[in-house]
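Throughout this chapter, every protein is written as a compact record of paired, labelled lines. The reader may check this reading against the record printed directly beneath this paragraph:
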Amino acid sequence: MATMEVDVEQQQQQPRRRAVFTIDDDHPFDLDAYIAPYTGRTVIDRLIAIIIQCPSIAPHALSLAFQHLYRLRDPSLVNAVIGAYESVLGTQEGKGLPPVADVVTVDMEWVEDVTKRNVAERTKLEVELKTYTNNMIKESIRMGHRDLGDFFRATGEFGLALKHYTKSREFCSTSQHVLDMCMSVLELVIEQRNYAHIPSYVYKAEGALESLTIGSAVANATSPSASTSQVPQGSAMAMGTGASSTTSGAGLGASSMIGSAGGGSSQVSQSRKSTDRDHIHTKLEFVLALSHLGTGAYDKAAVAFLRLGPPEQLGDWIGKLVAPSDIAIYGALCALASLSRSFVKAQLVDNPTFATYIEQEPYVRELVQAYMASDFKKVLDILSRNSIRHNTDIHLSPHTPELTRLIRHVSLVLYFAPFETVRLERMADALGWSVEEVEREVVGLIQGGRIVGRVDSRGKILVAKKTDHRAELFSRAMKMASEMEKTNRKLLLRMRLYVFCFLLFSPTTSLFF
């Protein structure tokens, strides 16, 4: 845990330098539409990234950030947002932008009021935790650490939040408590983008979820049934003969109603538990997919994203941590960059669940359709047109150049696959590149083994390497025959040595070994 806290501190102290992008007709970007689906701290994180990377809309992003941060409980975000904007003002791209005072006005009364309330609540929670600890109330101690973790997370003190979340693990008495702790830590590390620490908590949460599932199954199997049907019959037997039959009939009717009501409530409870498990499972799949994306394992990330359940199963994480359009973009780009065309067809195009995510971002559907139709020029044009959307995403931006490069390579490989020879000029026209750029990319793919062929630099022709399968089979057969001949010669020599008594064997020794 100490290592993880150090990682959080280093991430805050050493922000990564970002590239700067220009918004124009070829690279449009609608800031209001982009930020609308998000809530909470992720709004501020994304707007800070946009302020740094897109100076032309930095004033509008600064104004939106102040509109949202007044709804939170972390006054330090005021300095973070202003610091990001002022860092842009000192660059070449930021010249001509208005100063902070001309864009927003800092509400110092709000800052002081929130700071006082945070100090008061922190004191209250710490006193309560100390009281619970002195009284040795295990469940109350766990809840005290949980509440302090939630408080520190809301106020931006992530190291302390992580400390209290993990400390509550010592006082967990059920699998549900462990699961709640793991989900809280996962939300925290997603906000801080510490992808390397996600898998360990995912595995802990899966273990707790499995224990809950087994415990629920055992409880359902051992629960008594039809225990209520005995009561009305017994009361009827104690009454007279005439009333006995009437009361007995009424008792049986009542017992059947009670039994059906009990069975119905049991089914509702089981259905609710099954739904909760589906929600938890979808959340764990999502964080694991995000972890694979963060560590550069794009094939694993694509498979995990395409395996997600519907957006409703992500619950309150939609908006607070991610938007459905983000999942559509992450899954589609990772799939096109790392998976085969048949896999993309089966798991992405024909996937009705993932289609609900793609509906939130229409250009993703156009991208996938162009890829499946081998319209690679349109594929690359769509990637270029939406490059600002990809490069300003807090999770995707570090991987956008590499994913784009991989998709370009896949486009080249798939375009050349049906041909034995093709002119580089024709490839350039089909992909929208220059001939020199196509030649450079093709040579790199040949050197990397992705394309089997050679380039005629003078004629600007790419020629596939022909493989004579018949000659290859004959060569392999001759090689095996030669090896068998050598083995037989050695065996015959050994037999002759034995015949002429040059070799001595014990009774248990084989002639051939």
